[in-house]
Amino acid sequence: MRLHTLAAACCVLALSIGCSYSDSGLTTSVKTKLAADDTVKALNINVETKDRVVTLKGEVRTEAEEAKAIQIARATDGVTDVVDQLSIVPADATAPTTGRVGESPIDSTVAVTDPGITAEIKTRMLADPAVSGLKIDVDTRERVVTLKGVLSSQAEKDRALAIARENKHAVRVEDQLTLKK
User: What is the pLDDT of residues 26-77, one digit of tens each?
Assistant: First the structure.
């Protein structure tokens, strides 16, 4: 009986480790950590994973942001390597403004990037208790958002789609979410 219990425990452990180290699981984990970090400001960083190798693409404002993003990705359990394709683009100190204190630059929507859209949607999903944000992969290409993952209920799927569709910068949301059988 003890042998069966030990074997079952080993199977559960192996499955949990295997699932957490899937490429989509690693992408989600890295995206979540980048979005939560105050230094990185992950709105302009796209994360892709293939064979446990994470590629960071996009723009950061400083070398410190770039170094921190790479450090976060490398420190994520299951990541075997990190490919740095980040560009350092300093913030423009002379960005146009309305001239009123506390208001954002004129036409601030121009700077919206695919990684920024992804990060905004992912952050909202992680903050919503009705959605298992870690089970949903959010990818954006040319402002078209694609949601992938396996969810527990239709209500959860509907809420995830609603969150993505509420993003004013996304031109379309593609639903590749499935339900557990």
Answer: 888 888 888 777 777 666 788 889 999 999 988 888 888 888 889 999 999 9
* Average pLDDT of the chain to the nearest whole number: 78
Domains of the chain: 22-90 (3.30.1340.30), 112-181 (3.30.1340.30)
Burial class of residue 146 (count of CB atoms within 10 Å of its CB; 0-12, 13-18, 19+): middle
* Angle of the 154-165 helix axis to the 114-127 helix axis, nearest 10: 140
Q: Which two tokens stand for residue 140?
A: 């954006």
Strand partners, 149: 136, 177
Cβ atoms 60, 66 nearer than 8 A? yes
| Among the listed residues 6, 36, 4, 5, the one whose alpha carbon sits nearest the alpha carbon of residue 127 | 36
